[in-house]
Amino acid sequence: MAALLVDIVFTVTAFLVGSFRMMNGDEKIFMRMITGKSTDKNDSTFYLSVGDPVKMGLSSTYPAFLADYGVFQTTDPVKATYILTDYHFPDSLVGLSNAYPQLQIYSFIGIQQKLIRRVDGVIETAKNAFLDIILPLVGILALFMGFLAIAERAGGVRLLSRIIWPFFSRIFPDIPKGHPATGHMMMNFSANLLNLDNAATPFGLKAMESLQELNPNKSEASNAQLMFLALHASGLTLIPVTIIAYRSGLGAADPTDIFIPCMIATFVATMAALFIVSWRQRINLFQPVIVGWVGAITGLIALLVSYVIKLDAASSQLFSSKLSNGLILFIFVAIVIGGAYKKIDVFDAFVDGAKGGFETAIRIIPYIVGMLIAISLLRTSGSFDYLINGIKYLFAALGTDTRFVDGLPTALIKPLSGSGARGMMLDTMKRYGTDQFAGRLSAVLQGSSDTTFYVVAVYFGSIGVRNTRYAIGSMLLADLVGVLTAIFLSYLFFA
Q1: Domains of the chain and CATH, by start
Q2: Are 280 and 227 in contact (CB under 8 A)?
Q3: Furthest-apart CA pair in the chain: how many Å?
Q4: Using one digit for the tens of pLDDT, what is the confidence trace for 35-59?
Q5: CA-CA distance, 440 to 493, in Å (whole number)?
Q6: What contacts 171, CB < 8 A, 6 or more positions away?
């Protein structure tokens, strides 16, 4: 029900904003919302440059960023539509303006309000949802569900459940001792920690199926499902290897300098999720077992941080790759060896599990497509641009620093779409520079939260739960804590 309400709100908002833009002269807005593609070329416009965008804190590659939006630099005043300036050469600006009064004058920052973001419309989004998300997900689910089925028959999941039971029994009091759901959840959390998204999703979906077996009301989310999903969506990750790789590719002086802020922010978000849901479920967190486990995890994270910060970008990426891929390969080999030791039919177990993965992928198609279409309408309509400008105006009126607002698009998109947030992060880095405050902040924001609406739609959709209770509210509140922490840490480390 909550996911349906979100879809309705997003769609209505997008229609209203699109209508407003059409009445203000954007005649192609509805066409872009329905049939537009991210590869479409906007109608090209040209500008004369008076000054240097770098003097306004923008990236040295800023002209290339503008070109991505169809705004190109020229030396021909007749051809130009705009004059873009840093206001450091007023005499030149006045001379050009008097000679060519038809030219509109904007600062290098001000022109950004005129840019039209190229985003897929609903038809292209629906097609790409199947080609880029569903089809790869089918294979990934089949692979990991197959190995998980072997582990279940061999008793590996029960063994993992017994190890983690003392802690999980406190925060998941409704799960009986020895239930496979405990092992499934632990495997999901472990995959998230290592930034193994491909592995985390299948394990998470299997965990939701296991928890659904214990759910007395199949159409309503149980307390255990709410706790699991909140912790999962907090996105605790040890090493943000993909973010480091993007920063390295875009020429950051020190691509790993966002590691500590990312690590702290995502840990705080996870703790916030734990406290929020525990408060709703009246779970006492100040029990010796819980305090001991949380303390031990905090200590391990601190040790990892102390080691990784000593490495350069290439070394940290290599370390993360070895750790993540080596561990997942070890798990595969251990599962097969364990299955052979228990004398089970390994291949038959794998095939049965893979079939279940395929069936799960088919069930979640409508939920994925529905959520992505609503998000596409919201982005294409320009709603986010209005929101960002409104936030910047508000904080400017309050007399506070507004630099953080330039990095906020990543945080606003992240609960809706992981790929969309990644695109916003890259867009911000290209616009302002990877080593500027906004570029660094967008990277920390990318690493401090997860795709809340997507997770709710997919995970609850896979088991047919329609009443998600307080899932979205609690998860968004945890995301907000992560975002605020990320902003605070970015000012602390980079301002």
Answers
A1: 43-115 (3.40.50), 122-494 (no CATH)
A2: no
A3: 88
A4: 888 777 666 789 999 999 888 878 7
A5: 10
A6: 227, 274, 278, 283, 285, 290
